[in-house]
Amino acid sequence: MAGSHPFRRAAETKDVDLLAETLHEDVVLHSPVLFRGFEGRDTVVTVISHVAATLENLSYTDELAEGDTVVLRFKATVGDRELEGIDFLQLDDDGRVRELTVFMRPFSALNAFNEGMKARLEVAEG
C-alpha cells in the first residue's frame, strides 16, 4: 500500500480529509447509476462519504498506474450482495484526481447499492 495512490489510502481508511486533498477543486465523479456527473470537490467528497457508508468490507484488490491514469479494482458488499468494481482515476499534473469514473457489477449488487444510496441521500436531505 506504500506506493499506492493517496485516493486509495483515503478510501481504505475512510479519511475524509485525505480524500479531499487527493481531489482537484473541479473534480468530476461519474456514477455507475446516474447519467450526469457530480462536480466540485465538496460535492464529490459528500457523495463518496455516502458511498463509503453504503459499501461494507471495501477492499482494493489491484492497482494499475500509467501516466495520468490510475485504475483501482475493489470488492465490497452491500447487504447480502457481493459487489466488485473499478475506480478509474484521471489525474491532473499534480497527481490529484481530476475525473473519477466508477464501474460496478453485478447488476443485482448495483441495484442494492443504488437503493442504499437513495435511502442515505433522502435522510441527508430530509
What's the structural blueprint in terms of helices and strands?
Elements: H1 6-13, H2 16-22, E1 23-30, E2 38-39, H3 41-54, E3 56-66, E4 69-78, E5 81-91, E6 97-105, H4 107-125
Parallel strand pairs: 1-6
Antiparallel strand pairs: 1-2, 3-4, 4-5, 5-6
Helix pairs in contact: 1-2
Describe what is shown at a glance.
The chain has 4 helices and 6 strands.
Q: Care to describe what's here?
A:
With 126 residues, the protein is of the alpha+beta class. It has a single domain, classed as Nuclear Transport Factor 2, Chain: A (Roll), CATH 3.10.450. 38% of the residues lie in helices and 40% in strands. The chain has helices at residues 6-13, 16-22, 41-54, 107-125, and strands at 23-30, 38-39, 56-66, 69-78, 81-91, 97-105. Strand 5 and strand 6 form a beta hairpin. The protein starts with 5 loop residues before the first helix and ends with a helix.
